[in-house]
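User: I'm putting together notes for a lab meeting next week and I want to include a structural view of one of the chains we've been expressing. I don't have a solved structure, so I'd like a prediction I can at least talk through. The sequence is below, exactly as it appears in our construct file.
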Amino acid sequence: MIRIESILRIIQKQSQLKQLKVGNLEFNLDTLSVTREDKLIKLKPAELKLLQKLMQESPNVVRKETLENILWGDDLPNRDIFKAHIYLLRKNIDKPFKRKMLKTIHGIGYQLVG
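Assistant: Thanks for the context. Below is the predicted structure for the 114-residue chain, given as structure tokens.
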């Protein structure tokens, strides 16, 4: 019986790794689908990468440089392109909802709060 319970805990932990959740925002890593308040949110690949890192680190602040590195590595483009990705992410996960989740920590980076 103890062995079965142990196996069940392992299976539950593995299934949790495939789903990120912060507050009412959910990200299924298998299907790459994002929902908030049970509403499907369509995101582009760059936005998905940013959101995944922000959700994995939540509620910690993620440095801007870390997020840029996730998107482009050492080959950084124009600064406005990064701002555009953050704008689109914020527009999709925050704008349609009353409570804002994506916070800018000026001079440091970004934080996703539940």
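A couple of points you could mention at the meeting. Residues 7 and 54 are 30 Å apart (CA to CA). The first strand starts at residue 19 and ends at 22.

User: Perfect, that's what I needed.
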